[in-house]
Amino acid sequence: MDQALNILVARLLAQRFVLRKDPLARRALIDEAFRESLEHRLAECGLQLLENPYAEHIAVALQPHMEEWVFGEGENWLSNNMGLPRDGIALLVVVWALIILPKRERQIARVEAGNEEQGDLFGAEKPIEHGEGVAQGVSEDALYADFGKVLGGKMRFTTNLGQLSKLGFVVRRNRMIYEGPMLDLMIDYAKLAPRIINGALADILKLSGTQIATAEIDA
Fold first, then answer.
1. CA nearest neighbour of 99 among 156, 149, 55
2. What is the pLDDT of residues 119-136, one digit of tens each?
3. How far apart are CA 158 and CA 196, in angstroms?
4. In the beta sheet, which residues pair with residue 15?
5. Which end of the chain is more exposed for a tag (fewer CB within 10 A), N or C?
6. Residue 80 belongs to some domain of the structure
């Protein structure tokens, strides 16, 4: 177990994420003893395993009590620990809402469809789907047309999108934006989804748009 554990930890640290269908990742998800050893090894370094059944990858992150020790210096800690500016964070939330929320609906619907016949103990169980078939992409041009001016204009939009790609949140291909390995792991669905579904994102964008318009008039 030690060699396999060492390899998985080294890959997670060096590559930042590993596909959940990878043999070692799968072992960490189904082998309880291996999972406990992995979590213990990571905890010794102030890290924790990131995984959820709806994400296509597993990854590592700092344990909450270690964040201030690592990111406590500098102004970035005041808003986030990824070095993203405020308009970059806003773009990340918009992309998350457009890609992850619809994906999660499709995944949950598929699971529920597999459990319709409660009395059939041996019925076929539908696994959770992953990949671009369920996580559909978003057009860069359409995204900019809808939100670009609110999110800082063309240059800021392009710069922030490139940063999100570099951090692994998104994958850009043929002017389309797809889910990156970290998008469904680094953002807490349970906390953010209700805020977006209840209209908080729309209110924030509306407010930001008003502030920008006011600034332009004052100028």
1. 55
2. 444 344 456 666 555 668
3. 24
4. none
5. C
6. no
